[in-house]
Amino acid sequence: MRVKTSQKFEVVDLTAKVADAVGRSGVVEGLCTVFVRHATAAIVINENADAGFRHDIIAALDKLFPQGVWQHDKVDDNGAAHLKAAVLGPSEAIPVGGGRLLLGTWQGIALVECDGPRERQIVVDVRA
Ligand code: ZN
Questions:
Q1: Rounded to whole angstroms, how far apart are CA atoms 110 and 26?
Q2: pLDDT in tens for each of the 128 residues of the chain?
Q3: CATH no. for residue 23?
């Protein structure tokens, strides 16, 4: 799937789209892997009911990784974005049971854009 982000640093909920892909796959018991094909974006599973938490992820990562102090900034000025994405990781794996994602009540799947706005390619792989 492709997701267009609209801001420099942003958390985009993907839960409904991934759940849709699992439903269309016809897989009843298996594993769903969600993988973003970029070095400055990440996939996370966490709280998705509270929009405040999405802001907290962004604020916390900004505190950990300030702009403009990294060696990679000499290449294309986005060292902080790479570090944020590296710490979060490019993928998550979610068990599938009864034909649906076995997420907890408060868990959602999100793309974390660390160097947008851009169009991001995300692979959703569902296997029995
Ligand atoms: Zn770079």
A1: 23
A2: 999 999 999 999 999 999 999 999 999 999 999 999 999 999 999 998 888 999 999 999 999 999 999 999 999 999 999 999 999 999 999 999 999 999 999 999 999 999 999 999 999 999 99
A3: 2.60.120.460
Give me the number of domains the chain comprises: 1
Cα of 96 from ligand 1 centre, angstroms: 35
0.85 exceeded by pTM? yes
113, amino acid identity: E
CA of 33 to the centre of ligand 1 (A): 25
Q: Are 44 and 52 in contact (CB under 8 A)?
A: no
List the domain range (segments joined by +) for residue 10.
Answer: 2-127
- Which two structure tokens, joined as six digits, stand for 102? 């076995």
